[in-house]
Specification:
- The chain is α/β, with parallel strands linked by helices.
- Helix content is 46%, strand content 13%.
- The structure holds 1,3-dihydroxyacetonephosphate (13P) and iron/sulfur cluster.
- 1,3-dihydroxyacetonephosphate (13P) binds next to loops.
């Protein structure tokens, strides 16, 4: 039911499924309460206490670019790490901390635990999920795979441990095109899940034939090609940088498409002084640090009004706060657990991803 029907005929069951998915996402969004803004004094107090706890517990913060700038700064100041999801996985596995504090969303914490079963993995909140993960439940996904046994199953890292365990390969956006290119050259047929925009983008770039699961990121899906075309007219000198979870019309207008780290690198290396950026606004903190003096403009979304809960800002990434990070470290609460057997199974495609990434061309 989830295969994208290229004739664009949507069955009643498809629609029911999509409505069920939206309700599920909405229910989770309703729980995604953004943390209150702490005063300067509170922030300083949390920072001091967190630094002490990190030292005492031999812990490190591994953060994604979309989380609050305070958390990103603290991660880097204390010898931790800020990066895209592939780099976070790698850093968590390679560092010699006893405790990893993953500031991001659930699948990132699970990946860290799978790759480092002996480390304690904590998160500021376990409520922070991802619309792609939510829209790819294991039972349905398994049926989809069973119906296409001749396909190689490639899943995006934004999935549960159970979905990863069912896959042949896991990829992140930074290596998805390279990996599918490689598999297609070996003559493999690909089943891809869950992000339909990223899947369709990989298909266009590689020419590989792929069966696509039908889910989307609620943040990137909001970027609109029409508004972007208008904005490009207002800033004709600006280069457009887009994350591949964005819809096809947006990606067609982009001068560069890549993972969050690749977007930051492009902003540094492109000669342009202005950039229109189609990804979560959390990345602007790092963009401004890495490319000082350049101007970054948020790509237009469907609704910039008070109603919009995911316009260029992931509500789940936004749930990570200094206070929760502190509390989790102090109490050992919000620990990520992955069933041991499931973790071992999920480790196989994750390890393939890491080996492939280590050997690919720069
Ligand atoms: P990156 O791997 O590019 O950081 O993407 C993760 C993500 O969730 C983007 O929405
Ligand atoms: Fe998931 Fe989108 Fe949030 Fe990334 S931005 S974690 S893909 S919901």
């Amino acid at each position: 039911m989830r295969e994208i029907d290229h004739t664009r005929v949507t069955s009643v069951v498809d629609e029911e499924r999509l409505i069920a998915d939206s309700l599920l996402v909405k229910r989770h969004l309703d729980r995604a309460v953004p943390p209150g803004v702490p005063s300067a004094r509170e922030r300083a107090a949390y920072r001091g206490a967190i630094m002490e706890l990190l030292e005492r517990r031999n812990a490190m913060i591994v953060a994604h670019y979309y989380v609050d700038a305070d958390l990103q700064e603290l991660a880097e100041e204390t010898g931790g790490f800020v990066g895209d999801s592939l780099e976070m996985a790698r850093f968590g596995r390679d560092c010699d901390a006893d405790v990893l504090l993953v500031a991001g969303v659930r699948f990132m914490g699970e990946t860290a635990k799978i790759l480092s079963p002996d480390k304690t993995v904590l998160m500021p909140t376990l409520e922070a999920t991802c619309s792609l993960d939510l829209a790819c439940p294991i039972d349905e996904f398994s049926r989809f795979c069973d119906a296409h046994p001749e396909h190689t199953v490639v899943v995006y890292a934004n999935t549960s441990a159970a979905v990863k365990a069912r896959a042949d390969w896991v990829v992140t956006s930074s290596i998805a095109v390279d990996l599918v290119d490689h598999l297609a050259a070996e003559g493999e047929k690909i089943l891809w899940a869950p992000d339909r925009h990223l899947g369709a983008y990989i298909e266009r770039v590689t020419g590989a034939e792929m069966l696509l699961w039908d889910a989307a990121c609620i943040v990137h899906e909001e970027f609109k090609a029409r508004g972007l075309r208008d904005l490009v007219r207002v800033y004709p000198e600006a280069a457009v940088l887009a994350h591949p979870e964005s819809p096809a019309g947006v990606l067609e207008l982009a001068d560069f498409v890549g993972s969050t780290t690749q977007i930051i690198r492009a902003a540094r290396e492109f000669p342009n002084r202005q950039f229109i950026v189609a990804t979560d606004q959390g990345i602007f903190h790092k963009l401004q640090m890495e490319a000082p003096g350049k101007e970054f403009i948020v790509a237009p979304t469907a609704g910039n009004g008070a109603e919009c809960r995911s316009c260029a800002s992931c509500p789940w990434m936004g749930m990570n706060s200094l206070q929760q990070l502190h509390d989790s470290l102090e109490t050992g609460g919000n620990e990520v657990h992955v069933d041991f057997q499931l973790g071992r199974q999920a480790m196989v495609p994750l390890q393939r991803m890491l080996d492939f990434a280590a050997n690919r061309r720069p």
